[in-house]
Write a structure and sequence with these properties.
Layout: H1 3-17, H2 23-31, E1 34-37, E2 40-44, E3 54-56, E4 71-74, E5 77-78, E6 84-87, E7 92-95, E8 105-110, E9 116-119, E10 122-126, E11 136-138, E12 144-145, E13 152-155, E14 158-160, E15 165-168, E16 173-176, E17 189-194, E18 198-200, E19 256-261, E20 265-270, E21 280-287, E22 292-298, E23 303-307, E24 316-325, E25 331-333, E26 337-341, E27 349-352, E28 355-356, E29 364-366, E30 369-373, H3 374-380, E31 384-388, E32 393-398, E33 401-406, E34 411-414, E35 417-420, E36 426-428, E37 431-435, H4 436-442, E38 446-450, E39 455-459, E40 480-481, E41 487-488, H5 492-498, E42 504-511, H6 517-533, E43 539-545, E44 559-564, H7 567-575, H8 589-602, E45 608-614, H9 630-639, E46 642-648, H10 652-662, E47 670-672
Parallel strand pairs: 27-39, 42-43, 42-45, 45-46, 46-47
Antiparallel strand pairs: 1-2, 2-8, 3-7, 4-5, 4-8, 6-7, 9-10, 10-17, 11-16, 12-18, 13-14, 13-17, 15-16, 19-20, 20-23, 21-22, 21-24, 24-25, 24-26, 27-28, 29-30, 30-37, 31-32, 32-33, 33-34, 34-35, 36-37, 38-39, 40-41, 43-44
Helix pairs in contact: 5-6, 6-7, 8-9, 9-10
Length: 683
């Protein structure tokens, strides 16, 4: 399906969901027709009609001939710059020849500091490039924020841990901590702010672009005798889309909830309003380090419950949230909640800022009061501790607040003011124990007792847990979950490995378009058991690719990783893959497979050769969107004696194409990609 048709369907669906009150929350997304591809911005224009030669475009960025160069693409093929003229003053492009009816047209230009764009449910901002020494970066922000939660930062497209930077909404400044390496000279630094955190936008008079134009047909200027278009083009009349795109509310307005009930049971409710065409919904579970450990597909309009213990997770603290995402990278999510799992609730667990605490003397329940080791709790809270053995008094100081406790006394002091404790500090097994709730609340912490789980949670600062696709790197050993809540691993890669009896050179060719999110996780989770099960002496490589509808000078969004026998290095390759972007269209798989065959042929090895191809979509099989054909690639696989396995659709166009590649050499097999997806957890 063409990208423009997808947009049209989105416009139409507004009429269906208009009564759900979505207009106010989706208006911002509709203001931008741009999205990011690596370090470029893509702007989709109106389709060709066979007559129009002048196309306008809308952008929030101030574009000039000196700060950027626009590049024009028709049907994914770059147009020679001699065949069109860009009018930067009026944001329009005039072509020498009108594109054919239905032609897909877009422009691309490089991101420079100060530019912004839409990316999923976030707005991206390009900060000044790194210089090898700077840790403070100004943000060109023309919005009022209602929250700084879930703001994220990336350096050279690698996400920075939230603990390693701060964002000051007053000064609009990002500051990197000493834990974070200083960005090298020329490093690309991008800040992402959730749309839900923006309470107001600039008025039209405050916008950087005062009168941008959209893609409309106008009478083109005459072409001079020389054949070159005139320098100045007319200004088309602004004509923005009449309706915004459908988008599911995010943050507090997300139409779903997570409730932890007695018996340590989690109950999920997801409103029917999340059932928007093209979106899939999930329950996401992250560990304290922010890595995904469970991803469970949820069906909107239903409610279901299951025991936290049955999720197969070890004792610990976890962040849970609901999210809905589509193939184009649009994402909405609920606010993450912290939950605890304790398989031995009689042993009290203490979590501070989401991290489980380990004390030499275990926490004790004394007449309804949880007592913890004095030094352990104060140091965990970041307080300086002084112990006076002669008076049996402890003094703790943190951020200008002083607490004084005396062993055996219910009287304590906070900045000199006496307060009465519910339990006396006491010595147990030679360890000084103090009341957890009092100490934590005295320093401004929020304390909550979870009786069913035998756990106490303390937060001095509310956690900021990102929900973007880039933040959802699966933890080592993470698994999918079945309807009963027990862990499950798809057997596909294990089945493939059973047919590998000799050392082999294996390349994973993986589609990383947005719709492949579930399968990307599957590959990351099962690759270790796969490489452990094949004969020693095998080598592994990875090639990833995205849709071919947007590329530059033969760049098909291909990314190739070198051969390695190091299993940890291979897992590192796979962990860099994030499924995002793209649309419901044919993709550039043949280019990626061709690269894999070349890579295998050039690799100096006597091992057997094998490709494992993973995709959920058909591939381009004809010019100009592909330089290769199914038959040509099949012949090449046969000539090079490369075994070809595929994890792909088991029916439809994709099956009819890919099965020809599988059958090109003996030993190949096609496995249904549905068996590699996240299992559903619906009633």
């Amino acid at each position: 399906m063409k990208f423009r048709k997808m947009l049209l369907l989105s416009f139409i669906s507004i009429f269906i969901f208009g009564n759900l009150g979505l207009h106010s929350v989706i208006a911002h997304a509709a203001d931008s027709l741009e999205f990011r591809e690596h370090d470029d911005l893509i702007n989709i224009l109106k389709d060709g009609d066979g007559e129009n030669r002048v196309f306008g475009f809308t952008t929030k960025n101030k574009l000039t001939a000196s700060n950027t160069t626009l590049r024009l693409y028709v049907n994914a093929i770059e147009v020679d710059s001699k065949d069109y003229v860009v009018d930067y003053a009026n944001y329009s492009i005039t072509l020498n020849k009108a594109p054919d009816r239905g032609a897909e047209i877009h422009i691309k230009y490089g991101i420079i500091p100060g530019f912004e764009w839409g990316e999923g449910s976030n707005i991206g901002f390009a900060l000044p490039e790194g210089d090898g020494s700077t840790r403070n970066f100004p943000v060109s922000l023309n919005y009022t924020l209602n929250s700084t939660k879930q703001i994220s930062l990336s350096i050279d497209q690698t996400k920075v841990a939230t603990s390693r930077f701060t964002f000051n909404a007053t000064t609009n400044t990002v500051t990197l901590s000493e834990k974070q390496q200083v960005p090298h000279s020329g490093a690309k630094v991008y800040l992402y702010i959730p749309e839900a955190s923006i309470s107001s936008k600039p008025s039209p008079s405050e916008e950087v672009i005062e009168s941008p134009v959209s893609s409309v047909a106008v009478d083109p200027p005459p072409i001079p005798a020389s054949g070159s278009p005139s320098v100045t083009s007319p200004s088309p009349t602004p004509n923005k889309p009449s309706e915004p795109l459908v988008q599911i509310p995010t943050g507090e307005r997300y139409p779903g909830s997570i409730t932890i009930r007695s018996g340590n049971t989690i109950t999920i409710k997801l409103s029917e309003s999340a059932s928007v065409s093209g979106y899939t919904s999930y329950l996401m579970v992250k560990n304290a380090s922010g890595q995904v450990v469970r991803q469970i597909k949820i069906e909107p309009g239903k409610t279901f419950s299951f025991s936290l213990r049955k999720m197969g997770l070890p004792t610990g603290g976890y962040y849970c949230y609901l999210k809905s995402a589509n193939q184009s990278g649009e994402l909405s999510a609920s606010i993450p909640q912290f939950v605890t799992i304790n398989h031995e609730p009689t042993n009290i667990q203490v979590f501070i800022e989401g991290e489980k605490q380990v004390y030499k003397q275990p926490p004790t329940n004394f007449k309804g009061n949880v007592l913890v080791p004095l030094r352990g709790i104060f140091e965990s809270l970041g307080a300086n501790v002084e112990w006076n053995s002669s008076t049996q008094t402890v003094t703790a100081i943190r951020e200008g607040r002083t607490i004084v406790l005396t062993i055996g006394s219910k009287i304590a002091y906070i900045n000199g003011v006496a307060v009465t404790l519910s339990a006396k500090p006491q010595i147990i097994n030679g360890v000084t124990m103090v009341p957890l709730r009092f100490v934590s609340e005295a320093f401004g912490g929020e304390v909550e007792w979870h009786g069913e789980a035998g756990s106490v949670t303390i937060f001095l600062n509310k956690p900021s847990i990102p929900t973007s696709a880039e933040s959802e790197e699966p933890a080592s050993g993470a698994t999918k979950t079945t309807e009963s809540g027990s862990p499950s691993t798809s057997p596909i890669l294990n089945n493939i490995s059973k047919g590998i009896n000799t050392p082999s050179d294996i390349i994973f060719v993986i589609d990383v378009t947005g719709s492949m999110g579930e399968v990307i996780d599957y590959i990351k989770e099962t690759v270790k058991s796969f490489v452990d099960s094949v004969p020693a002496g095998s080598n592994f490589a990875v090639i990833s690719y995205r849709d071919v509808n947007i590329y530059r000078n033969g760049d098909y969004n291909l990314k190739s990783f070198d051969f390695t026998r190091d299993k940890d290095k291979l897992k590192g390759y796979l962990n860099t893959l994030v499924a995002s972007g793209g649309g419901d269209i044919k993709e550039s798989g043949l280019e990626a497979i061709n690269l894999a065959t070349n890579k295998l042929s050039e690799f100096n090895s006597d091992n057997a050769k094998q490709i494992i191809f993973i995709t959920d979509a058909p591939v381009h099989d004809s010019p100009p969107l592909s330089s290769f054909s199914i038959k040509g690639i099949a012949d090449k696989l046969k000539a090079d004696e490369i075994v070809f396995d595929a994890i792909a659709p088991s029916d439809g166009d994709a099956y009819r194409q890919i099965i020809q590649l599988v059958k090109s050499t003996p030993g190949g097999a096609l496995y249904d990609i549905k068996d590699a997806s996240v299992l559903s957890l619906n009633k």
